[in-house]
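Hi there, hope your week has been kind to you so far. Thanks so much in advance, here it is:
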Amino acid sequence: MNSSGLTAMPPKMAANTRTMSSNSIIPMAWQYHPPEGSKLERGALPAGTVSTTQIEDAAQSGGEGGRHLMRGRFHGCAHAAAAVAVLAAVVLACAGAAPARAGAQQLGELSFVQCFGRVSGCVNLPNLEAVASAQGLAISPNGSSLYVTAAPGVLTHFFVGSAGELAYDGCVSDDGSHGLCLDVPGTSSPLEGARGVAVSPNNASVYLAPVTAEDVVHLFANPEQGQLKWDGCVSNDGSGGACADVPGSGQPLANTERLVVAPDGSSVYVAGRFSVARFSAAPEQGQLTFAECLTDEGEQGCAAVPGTGRSLGNAEAIAISPSGRSLYVTTPTGGSEGDVAHLNTNPPLGPLSWSDCVSSTGDGGFCSRPAKTEDAFRFASDVAVSPGGEDVYVYGETDQVISHLSADPISGALGFDECIEGAMEVGCAQAVPGPAMFEGAGKIAVSGDGRSVYVVSNHAIVVFSREANGRLSFEQCLADTAITGCSDLPGEPLQKDAEGIVVSPSGNAVYVAGGVTGSLIELARATSTNSAPPSGPGAGGSPSSGPPPATNPGTFTAAQLRASLASQLVPKGPKAKRAKVAARRGYTYSFRALEAGSLTIGWYFLPEGAHLARKPRPVLLASGQVSFNAAGSRTLTVHLTREGKRRLAHARTLKVSAKGTFRPAAAGAVTATRTFTLR
């Protein structure tokens, strides 16, 4: 029971119901318990079972029952869809007691609000499986509903308030979850392993791509409040009559992973083990009809990609351009080591066709290959497109790399621009301040205003500001474990292997599906900026004139500067071998500075009992320095001293302490040390 005195009673579904009309209503009964000492006034509710009509009357009457209703917070608001007035009252009640939302300082910066799930510090939900092993997230275009898929075959709906605050509504599951969810008709499990989830542009349809069930699911959604009603599914073989059957004997929906809806709502595109498939969607209600599919070699009854490349096998993620003309698909093992494929969609209902691809190895000449970044796309686990469609961002999970690709404004063809990495082993120009920020699985999202890019990994949520040219600059990190350069999240809500991140349409909130145990995290996003007013071409123009100018980086804190410095002091790669350093008489860093300043790095040998700050004196082995006129990357070579050359020539291994000092242009110096062994 909540503070209003209302307790939700789960709906009862008719057995073996196969279909449901778009106008059918799931009744909801409520148990009302008047607060102790209250008096029954005009509009008050009697104790016992009450209907949604009685709730509506009480809410509209303004009496004590209405006041109790409006000031309560509902955690069991499932399917109270008898009338829009009732829904509005329930939504307001759910949103009325949201946790305080801390104010962030810089545009795009995040602050923790709350989390849901069976994780320490999070709010438990009526159905404990509602976000268990949460797999995917989607928010309705009108910003009023958030949908979460969970591995046990559950789709959960949350109301979203005007400030981005979440309130649990209810769920749909394969088995009804012991009466806590709406039960999918029949005895099949069409939601099992649901990962991909998407919402139609008119907010009236929700689509799922369950990897285990190997089908595509459609549910009707209330366009204003988001409550769900079952429609049906399409599978490779009809699932024993539970779903519609894809024509032919192929398996185009094997291991369905992710899906997207065309901006005009006319098509739904699904990425799976063998293919990318297109379904046509009914104009208003969104029912699906299989249309076509595309595979590498024309197997599974699909059309073939030209040439001999392997760019669509085992697709992991999919994104569509704002124009609806380009589809981008990542494959972890395509092109031997992962690639990004670009398909033409030929809207509104034209056939899918091959365009181009970018891969780690070039795929035998089939794809283009970025110079010096051959590992950037290894296990490419996610892809996102900027609001203007001019930039595509890809997360390569194996080597923990974010790649920035430019997209042709007309054709959508891809070209490599730059990459950012955690471990400085791939050859990217940039690195995040703390290498562990990128460890593990990664999902990526771009804010609707085009000013921020967000990455979620095993234990961290990393924030980047996006410049007008699409390039990224590190801004913030939040983590649920100790990671260099990150602020602390309460508890451990990410729980490793986070599977989804989405930004609200208004831009004031970010939501993360995190963890093996399962959680849903709500974060407030700062929507103001301290940057200078726009200037130059396009200033004061319409939204179509391109993304706003980037936020001025400002001055970083000493802790951020120190973390960035420490993360880059240890030499990496083949050139960091003892013999190579000796032969080259030094080592060359590729160093990224967060702001203007000067950098000095020294390598020292510490005799027994020595310390870098006191006697006996350490032995200088190598040193170098460089200046930065602005934030960016430059090379810095530490040249061996005479003693450094001598010691390297006579030792098989040498333990070295690297000391770095960075002096910002407008603040005091910061120092960091790291120890490593040259072998």
